[in-house]
Specification:
The chain is globular, with a radius of gyration of 18 Å. The protein contains nine helices and seven strands, in the order βααβαββαβααβαβαα. The protein has a domain of 182 residues: P-loop containing nucleotide triphosphate hydrolases (Rossmann fold), CATH 3.40.50. Strands 1-3-4-2-5-6-7 form a seven-stranded mixed beta sheet, with helices on both faces. With 262 residues, the protein is α/β, with parallel strands linked by helices. Helices cover 38% and strands 21% of the residues. The termini are far apart. The structure holds guanosine-5'-triphosphate and magnesium ion. Guanosine-5'-triphosphate binds next to α3.
Length: 262
């Protein structure tokens, strides 16, 4: 149901904390050698072939999604599974941030591009630059069910996220908790579903899933839940702005056209 590309960001350290620079990061994601040609191909493909039955071009949304959590919890593996239907046991730590794009034909009238920001666990909450978080409209926080200490960090990641990015009305962006590596022996609170429910409610998670990138468990489901929440927020924001300036969470054209002069 979707198409996807995955590209590596080579330059992440020279971001400065301005809106313009953020757009450069998004633009460099689009403009990088491999992605740009592929993206043009996608654009042409969708322009030509993605008309719905009534010949109308579907609404096109681009949403920035963060994937954060401790080192080695499986963030990259989840993204690779989701985007490429691929898994490897081999661990190569992410440096800085990687990007992936997942294109979803959500329904006959809606095309969604998820710009997935795969942030290295070694970035650590608290030290995370705001630029990574800027304009994100949804997030996954990932922990490893075999290592309790990665669960203990979850509340810090969530607090960091909520302090650095909000929706236009000031509310937190939707965030889904992923208890990854559920194909293995679990340790801690994850063994009690009711306590996990309580924990997620208290910390303000939209939802939580046990996932396995290895066995492909619940990754599509978790993504669908997050996207549904984002679409709902987008609609609420647009509805509340009906009489004023229109604002959308999606920033499709922004990313394509702007470039940085600094
Ligand atoms: N058994 C099992 N292993 C997994 C799963 N997901 C990831 N792994 C393994 O866990 C290790 C770390 O996975 P990564 O996806 O690189 O973890 P990461 O969170 O991106 O790590 P950083 O980039 O360092 O933050 C790798 O050896 C993966 O093969 C899973 O669902 N089950
Ligand atoms: Mg990684």
């Amino acid at each position: 149901m979707g198409a996807a590309i995955f590209v590596k960001a080579s330059v992440v350290t020279r971001y400065c904390d301005s809106r313009q620079k953020h757009r450069q990061s998004a633009a460099s994601w689009r403009d990088s050698e491999t992605s740009f040609e592929q993206q043009k191909g996608h654009d042409r493909f969708f322009e030509m072939s993605n008309l719905n039955q009534s010949g109308v071009k579907p609404k096109d949304h681009l949403y920035k999604i963060l994937v954060i959590g401790d080192l080695g919890t499986g963030k990259t593996s989840i993204i690779k599974r989701y985007v490429h239907q691929f898994f490897s046991q081999h661990y190569r730590a992410t440096i800085g941030v990687d990007f992936a794009l997942k294109v979803l034909n959500w329904d006959a009238n809606t095309l969604i591009r998820l710009q997935l920001w795969d942030i290295a666990g070694q970035e650590r909450y608290g030290n995370m630059t705001r630029v990574y978080y800027k304009e994100a409209v949804g997030a996954f926080i990932v922990f490893d069910v075999t290592r309790v200490n990665t669960f203990e960090s979850v509340s810090n990641w969530k607090a960091d996220l909520d302090s650095k990015v909000q929706l236009p009305d000031g509310s937190p962006i939707p965030c889904v908790l992923l208890a990854n590596k559920c194909d293995q022996q679990k340790e801690g609170l994850i063994n009690s579903k009711s306590k996990m429910e309580e924990y997620c409610k208290e910390k303000g998670f939209s939802s939580w899933y046990e996932t396995s990138a290895k066995e492909n468990i619940n990754i599509d489901e978790a993504a669908r839940t997050l996207v549904s929440q984002i679409l709902l927020n987008d609609k609420l924001i647009n509805d509340s702005n009906k009489d004023g300036d229109q604002f959308s969470l999606a920033h499709t054209n922004d990313v394509k056209k702007k470039s940085c002069n600094c």
